[in-house]
Amino acid sequence: MKKQLLLVYLAIVLLLQSKIEPLSTILIISPLVILSYAFLIKKTTLGIVGFALFQLLAFPVVKLLNYENIGGTLFIIITMIIPSLILLEIILNLENNKIPKIKPKAAPMLTIVLILTIIIVMMFVLTQISLFNIYLQTVEATTIQILILASITIITCTPFLERRKI
Amino acid sequence: MVNDRLENQGLESTPYGRVLLILSCILFVEAYFFTNLIPAFSAMAIILYLVYTKIGLKNSIMNLDIDMERTILEKILFAKKPFNIVLKIKNNSSIAHLEIEDEIPRGCSLRKGTNIYSALISPDKGYNIKYSILASERGHYTFEGVRATIKDKSKLFQYTMDWTLISDVRVHSDIDLIKEAKTMAKTEKLEMTVKTKDRVMKTENYEFDGIRDYIPGDRLKDIEWKSTLRLSKPMTKMYEEEAAIPAIVLLDCSKSMRKTKGEKSKIDHGIQLSLQLIKIFLSWEHPSGFIAFDEYRLLIDIIPSKKRRQFEKIFNTLPYIPDRILVNEYHSYGFPWEPIPLNTEPEKQFINIIVPFHIKRKREYTKATQATGIYEAMWGLISTTKANHFIMLITDLETNFPSLYQALKLVRKYRHRIVIITPFTQWYDTHSEELYPNRLETIYRSYTEKQIIIKKLRGLGVKVIEITPQDRGRKVIKEIERSSR
Fold first, then answer.
1. More confident of the two residues B90 and B350
2. What residues of chain A lie within 8 A of the CB of B49, using their CB?
3. What is the pLDDT of residue B460?
4. Partner-chain residue, chosen from A92, A112, A165, that has the shortest CB–CB distance to B10
5. Separation in Å, CA of B14 to nearest CA in chain A
6. Cβ–Cβ gap A63/B56 under 8 Å
7. Distance CA A44, CA B20 (A)
8. Long-range contact set of residues A97-101: C-beta below 8 Å, sequence gap at least 24
9. Which of A2, A12, B362, B442 has the fewest CB atoms within 10 Å distance of its CB?
10. With contacts defined as CB-CB under 8 Å, which chain A residues touch B37?
11. How far apart are CA A47 and CA A91, in angstroms?
12. Is the pTM of this model over 0.95?
C-alpha cells in the first residue's frame, strides 16, 4: 500500500508541476501504471523498465532551466528526485520479502556527503567564473550547466565505480 | 573445517547495476538535447546511489566473516548410490545477499536438492544447504571448495570469491558387488585342506602324530599323562590336522592394471573378483586375507583370518585402492622379460637409499627386482608365516614381470600354492568395430607373447587362469577346484 501511495504522490507532484494536457498526462501516468503492475506481481525487471521509462518520459515533462535559483532547485530535488530514489530502492527490493535492515556504515555516508559537497561547490563556482572570455551565463547557460554537472559527476564518481580487486 | 579465502574477481556490477548506469548516461544526453536540468539531476542522483551502494558493499566485504562447514552424512559411500551432504553456513558479518555454490567433485552428479543457496541472509544467522550426489565410479573424490557470490542488498554489485573447503571422500564399489559375492558364496562349494600342526586352523579331522616335550603354553588337555608319569617329565601329544588352507588374494594395482579407455577396467574387475573369492573362501571357513600392491610398495595388507568381520574389514579398505586411469588410447606395456641388472655398487646404494624412502620401509636390496610391490608382498608373506597358504594373484603380468618371477620362485620354495588370475588387456579395451587386420595382428602378437610368459610361470608349478571381462568368481573357483583335484 505504501508503495502505491508513493506512485500516487509522484503522479500528483508531476501533474501539478506540468501543463495539464493529454500528452503530458499519458507520459506521466503510463510508466506509473507499469510500475504499479510490477509492484503487484513483484518483478524487479519490470520495475526497472518502468523506472527507466518514468525517468525518460515523465520527468522531462517538468522543466528546470537554471540551477542558479537555489530555492527552485532544492524544491525539485526534495519533491521529485529524492522520492524517485526511494522508488528505486523499493523496486530493487521487490523480490525480497522485506527490505533488509542493515545498520548504515559511516564510511559510505561520509564519501557521498563529500562527493555532493564537491559537486555543489563546483556547480555554483564554475558558473560564476569568466575564463578566457567565455561567460557562462549566456543563452546557452542551461546546456553548459548540464555539461558541468555531467562532467563533475563523472570525474568524482568514476573512481568509485571502477572495477577493482579488493 | 578449512576456511580460507582463495581468490576474488573484484567488485563488478550486476545487470541491474549496468542498466542503471546506462540509464544515467541516457538521462545526461536527454538533459542536454532537451535543455532540461531535471534529467541531469536524476542521472546524478542515480550515479550517487550506485556509488553509495558500492562503497557500502566494499565496506561489508572488508569485514567479511562467514563460517562454512561441510558434513557428509553417510559413513560408507557406494558408487551408484546417492549420498547426502550438508553445508553449514554462518554469517557473522552484515552481508545482505549471499549466493553460495558448493562445487561438486568431477565424476559426481547432483541427484536431489541443490548445491546452490541464494538468499538474503541476516547477520549472525546460520543456514544449511542439503543435497545428495551420486558417484558413478569407485574412487577417491575431493570437494575442492565453495564459490560465494556476495551481493549488496539491492543486488546492484556483486563480489565473487572462492573458498577452499576441502573434503575428501572415498567411494566404494557398487553395493551390488557385495550382494553378488554373498549370493555366490551361498551357491559355490569349496574345500581345500592342508596338513598342519597349527591348532588355530583346526578342523574336526585330526590324527595323532607323536609325543614331544612339554613347552610352556601347551594346553592341559594335550598333555600325555602316561608318558609324563613314565618319564617323570611333562610330555605333550602332537596332532597332524586337516585344516582349511589360509587363502590370500593379491591384487596388482600398477598403472597397467588401472589404465582403461572407459567402459571396462582390469582393476575394477580385479576388485570384483577379489571380493567374490574372499567371500567364497570365508564362507567355507578358510582364513582369508587381502594384499594390494602397486609398482613400488604395498598399499593394503590384511593378514588371513576367519574372524566374523574379516570380510567387512577387507571391504572397507577397497576405496583406498588407486582409481582407474582414463586414457584415449591404451597400448599394452608388452611383456618385458629380461631383468634389469643391478651389479655395480653405486646402483645398489642408490636403490637402497631411494626405495625405502619411497615405500616407507627399510630393507636391504641386492637386486633391482627386489624393490617392487609384488616382491615386497611375497617377502612379507614368507617372513610372517610358516603355514602353507593358497595365494591368488590377480595381475595382467605387464608390470615388473622379472620381479614377479623372482617373487614366485621365492614363494614356491616355501611350498605355498599359487594361482595367477590374469586378465588380457586387449579384451578390455578392444571393440568389435576396431577389429581390422592390423589390429588383429597386434592382438595375436601380444597374446602369443603372453602365452610364452604363462608357459614360463607354469614351469614354476604355478596355476594360471586366464580371464575375460565377463568372467566372475564362479569360473575362477571351478578352475581352482579342477586344479586341486
1. B90
2. 85, 88
3. 86
4. A165
5. 12
6. no
7. 13
8. A99/B153, A100/B96, A100/B120, A100/B122, A100/B153
9. A2
10. 64-67, 73, 142, 145-146, 149
11. 6
12. no
